[in-house]
Write a structure and sequence with these properties.
It is a single chain. This protein is mainly beta. It has one domain: Kelch-type beta propeller (Neuraminidase). The strands form 7 sheets. A 4-stranded antiparallel beta sheet has the order 1-26-25-24, with no helix packed on it. It has a 4-stranded antiparallel beta sheet with strand order 2-3-4-5, with no helix packed on it. Strands 6-7-8-9 form a 4-stranded antiparallel beta sheet, with no helix packed on it. The longest helix is centred in the N-terminal third of the chain and has 18 residues. The protein is globular.
């Protein structure tokens, strides 16, 4: 049976269109905000990640308690730097005046420490600072104006600790309304936000507190959509993003969910999830993206994966 020219042409076009669809990514793949980059040389979890001049510094943690590695976001390459003075995991860190400040953390025997060190990337050297007023681990460190702050953590009174680099001096400020550890903290709009976390006898939290430095007060603000501890957080384009975390008090679960806080309407919402579940994972904003570094993919365990993901919403 003969087929007309138009019938043959239609069949050819249909076949080509079908092949095109088979070889094309679906809509979610085409528009995914996630990109996997070069993995850490030393896979680690329960670490901070600190940005200095566009490079991300990752000190200590499970899998390399004295390790310090630098990630260059421009070249997607890692570099080994001078080791920490002592072994630490669940440590707190932040950058000030292009130097890395590292506080507390737990030692090899899980005891909270009060150590304070500063690392100079130009000289690749560490120096000791005045110790913290309280030994702590699993808190968070942030920078606001001329001070560094330690928020939450295991050990001590739960007060906010303030460090002044110019004087190498500490001060104890207002306590959180709710004790919390395995938290994340960020600075937004001149205030400090303490994000979720957990506490023995209480469980995981989804509550959020905002600290106003001029008043030395903590205020409860809009709660997150999910409870979590051991998560990462960073600020990008005036919004707070929170990544992953774990549940250990009410079951065992590692999370891939990502939440975003919009200060304009004082509310949290879920956005595109992580490609994998992660906890004990830090997040750091560089340019127009957030980098999620390392972590563990099993709740209450240090199954260090070492992956690096770039999130560009």
């Amino acid at each position: 049976m003969e087929m007309s020219f138009f019938s043959i042409s239609f069949r050819v076009l249909t076949l080509c269109f079908g092949l095109l669809l088979m070889g094309s990514p679906n809509a979610s793949e085409r528009h995914s905000p996630w990109q996997q980059l070069t993995s850490m040389p030393t896979p680690r979890s329960e670490v901070p990640a600190v940005v200095i001049k566009g490079k991300i510094f990752v000190p200590g943690g499970f899998g390399g308690m004295r390790a310090l590695e630098e990630y260059d976001t421009a070249t997607d390459q890692w570099h080994q730097r001078e080791q920490l003075p002592a072994r630490r995991h669940h440590l707190m860190a932040a950058a000030f005046a292009d130097k890395l400040y590292v506080f507390g953390g737990a030692n090899f025997f899980w005891r909270p420490t009060d150590s304070a060190w500063v690392y100079d990337p130009q000289e690749d050297t560490w120096s000791e600072l005045s110790p913290m007023p309280e030994a702590r681990y699993a808190g968070a460190a942030v920078v606001l104006d001329d001070y560094l702050y330690i928020v939450g953590g295991v050990g001590g009174t739960g007060r906010l600790l303030r460090y002044e680099p110019k004087r190498d001096a500490w001060a104890s400020l207002a306590s959180l309304n709710e004790k919390r550890e395995h938290i994340a903290a960020v600075v937004l709009g001149g205030n400090i936000y303490a994000l979720a976390g957990r506490w023995q006898g209480v469980g995981e939290l989804n509550s959020v507190e905002r600290y106003e430095p001029t008043k030395n007060t903590w205020t409860m603000t809009a709660a997150m959509t999910k409870v979590r501890g051991g998560h990462g957080a960073a600020v990008l384009n005036g919004r707070i993003y929170v990544f992953g975390g774990e549940i250990i008090f009410s079951g065992r679960d590692t999370l891939d969910s990502v939440e975003v806080f919009d200060p304009n309407n004082d509310s949290w919402s879920l956005t595109t999830s992580l490609p994998v579940t992660l906890h004990g994972v830090p997040a750091a904003a560089v340019g127009d993206a957030i980098y999620v570094v390392g972590g563990s993919d099993r709740a209450a365990a240090a199954e260090n994966v070492g992956r690096v993901f770039k999130f560009a919403p």
